Give the backbone structure.
Amino acid sequence: MQHPSATELLAWYDRSGRRLAWRAPPSGTYDPYRIWVSEVMLQQTTVAAVGPRYARFLARFPDVAALAAADWSELAEEWAGLGYYARARNLHAAARAIAAAGDFPADSAGWRALPGIGPYTASAIGAIALGEALVPLDGNVERVVSRLFAIETPLPQAKPELGRLADGFTAQPAMRARPGDFAQALFDLGATICTPRSPACAICPWREGCRAAALGVAAALPRKSPKAARTPLHGVHFALLDAAGRILLERRPESGLLGGMLALPGTPWRAEPWADAEALQHAPRPGLSWQARPGLAQHGFTHRDLTMRLMAAQVPELPEGTPLDQAARSLPSAMRKLLPLL
């Protein structure tokens, strides 16, 4: 199959590429640490949400040595609200591995060996920070490539074919001369022009070489397999407060959903709803007068839908408690949704 011109895409990127906090100007140089942090943050999180959090993260952990030296509680606090908390645990573990080795891996294969670094992240760091001729295959790039070649195979089954087609760009000298800019140009093309709905084909730099545009089927691609049914989860959590407005928090187990993050004490999460009498066996102080609060808190994970109820009690003093305003900043998004029920 004929690949469109990398030169044309790079010229478009030089004119129209997004200016993002983690980007150098076209043809600029990159710090692997900053690219790594940005790529991990951007997994399952929007660019708009990551922008201010990225700047705040770097102010607190300006380099890999600072991140490696930090306690997990510091990183968990900084990551609160970004979701997908296994990313933060792996980021911390990889930072410590890099610090122990004394330097960053020299190539994408070395990055791939670190905790939490999958093929996409390793390729993105390799292309952008290390100048390797790689095409990172994220959702934007999958969409662009599926339309360029009018691939009808649905995702995720089409991933291997899309990967092979994307790799075909590496034969072009312009791509090999600027692999990082080419990767980011693809990201931007998918994010701003070749969008999931209503792609702006009329202003696309690759319109003439796009088979889906020629066939009039761009908006219908990529095809997607039917989604699996989502699993319901139920839990009951406990808000123990004192007269000063402090609330009791605990840290969740390292493994599982919200692993290692602060949370309100509660039951395990399971498929069946909890009866009050059963749930109270998990209360932090079972002898108190726990009162069920009206309403429900709901949160969606990747393949699961969580519904939580809240029970509240008060004690005169809770020295180990956390002020409510601080709790609101430190808790992950799912736990924050319980606070309005108070």
Q: What stands out?
A: The chain has two domains: 6-220, 231-341. The radius of gyration is 24 Å.
